């Protein structure tokens, strides 16, 4: 069932149940070393998943996935990779009201500035998570290929 469009284009309140579901999924993902709810576990608005930088070439200092999910079915999954020289490479999968693209869109790397429409076979949270982690795994493979 697809949630109704929110009034006034709002993303609505955080979907705590879905955030907890995604935290459990992160726990089964070998690349994820830690998860943290922000601002707190009792009032989660965002799930931060820290990735294992030992899996990346040594030029990668940190990598994480920030997840927001809303009761309206809107979401944002933001991948951020920081290199040892402080540069960031990032991208974001979004579903929310906006003036720049369709509700469902992708902010392209390397700076998440360019945006294109996005098509997903399913917007179920676990399917979106699988799509995003597949892209992160591809990024990891590309990083290793570039470091050779």
Descriptive report:
With 148 residues, this protein is α+β, with helices and mostly antiparallel strands. 24% of the residues lie in helices and 32% in strands. The chain is globular, with a radius of gyration of 15 Å. The relative contact order is 0.16.
User: Mean pLDDT, nearest integer?
Assistant: 92
Largest sheet: 7 strands, antiparallel
State the order of secondary-structure elements, H for helix, E for strand: HEEEEEEEH
Tally of individual helices = 2
**Shape estimate:** globular
- Overall helicity: 10-25%
List the helices and strands and how they pair.
Layout (H helix, E strand, L loop, with lengths): L15 H12 L4 E7 L7 E6 L8 E10 L5 E9 L4 E8 L8 E4 L7 E3 L7 H23 L1
Antiparallel strand pairs: 1-2, 2-3, 3-4, 4-5, 5-6, 6-7
